[in-house]
Design brief:
Strand order of the largest sheet of chain B: 4-5-3-13-14-15-12-16
Largest sheet of chain A: 5 strands, mixed
Largest interface: A-B, 10 and 9 residues
Helix content of chain A: under 10%
Distance between the termini of chain A: 44 Å
Strand content of chain A: 25-35%
Number of helices of chain A: 1
Largest sheet of chain B: 8 strands, mixed
Shape of chain A: globular
Order of helices and strands of chain B: HEEHEHEHEEHEEEEEHEEHEEHEEEH
Structural class of chain B: alpha+beta
Number of domains of chain B: 2
Strand order of the largest sheet of chain A: 2-1-7-5-6
CATH topology of the largest domain in chain B: FAD/NAD(P)-binding domain
Radius of gyration of chain B: 20 Å
Number of helices of chain B: 9
CATH superfamily of the largest domain in chain B: FAD/NAD(P)-binding domain
Helix content of chain B: 25-40%
Number of strands of chain B: 18
Oligomer: heterodimer
CATH class of the largest domain in chain B: Alpha Beta
Amino acid sequence: MNPLELARARPGPAFTVTFDGREMAALPGQTVAAALWAAGVMSWRSTRGEGRPRGVFCGIGVCFDCLVTVNDRPNQRACLVPLRPGDAIRTQESTGHDD
Amino acid sequence: MMGAACALYASRAGLDVVVVDRGPVAGGTTGAGEGNLLVSDKEPGPELELALLSARLWTDLAGELGGRIEYEPKGGLVVAAEPEGLAALEVFAAGQRAAGVTASGVAADQLDELEPYLAPGLAGGVFYPQDTQVMPTLAAAHLVRASGARLATGRTVTEVLRGADGAVRGVRTDRGEIHAPAVVNAAGTWGGELAALAGAHLPVLPRRGFVLVTEPLPRRVRHKVYAADYVADVASDSAALQTSPVVEGTAAGPVLIGASRERVGFDRSFSLPVLRALAAGATRLFPFLAEVRAMRSYLGFRPYLPDHLPAIGPDPRVPGLFHACGHEGAGIGLATGTGQLIAQVLSGADPALDLTPFRPERFAEEAA
């Protein structure tokens, strides 16, 4: 099974979101993490201590590894947040907060 | 934590030690706390003396292990919202100073220098530079490792073995016997059950507390900051829910928010009213927290004895049995001093503190 293929799902028409300013397609009901994976993006955060790349780890909202900034709000779990048309996803550096 | 500290100091006194834990390292109350090493919340008396002894020993250990256990001597700031509360706090601090605590008054217009994000309009506070924090799970693990003691995790003590003369000769576990002339009860909140296995009465009770954990943040809370009414809650005998705001940043980034106290047995169920009260108290102290996301919460059970003092030392009812439990919410901070005192009595030396206030047989059976 290829996780990039739809498993007999019949979602509504795709819409557009942005990732670091670039346009990207997403399907209704897709989480931020699912849309990023489908677009070939595996990493969207750098760690606080050593700036290491992070993406999905548990995928079920438990581990807080996949944190990402959506519509200027940092530290959201990419694996849980569903996308809406026009959402702006941004790579999160460190805590995602200034200063 | 308590077992790890007893193992460390007993090993350094030349004794052969086996640490037995039915769970993993730090799987009980140790892993459910905040890792506070506090003098600020203790009134003059035996617990404060133990805290001051422990603080000196933690400082020594920090030289060996400091970075690995996230030892952070950041200081504690106790604040009062109203002038009456501040006056009471200053009287309390004066008594502590006479007992050897370093405490300096902070005027309302100086609070901002210590904690720039603190709510405006507070009456003032007292700063305690000796208050320190460690990461408790790392501290327990590194103390056990540094002790060189044999570690038997996932092994439950089912019986305390005693000879014909009544003296302890080891323990039976679910995976075999371990023979030893001395057994130290460092079972924390479950210390009463272990004492009962040896036929000794020790009324350790659980006092539940929740901690709310925020998303990782830049360092905006610099010290351990809490409201003056926390001290009254710690010393209270009430079974009902009490919350008083305790807020602190951590080396890893999240802000930890406490503290709740309630006596509800070993009930592990999530409580929205408690967490709501914690969040409301914390945002009163630090308004910016209202915009911060809470990631998760955890809970634990403080081992509580009726007079709020731990049980430390030999049990005259059962030769060979020693107790090191019942430290309530201060077990991480008091672990080093307790460990050293236990090592001293185990090896026949004079303990550095008078153990009379901590004697384990001080509770009458009918009080249970």
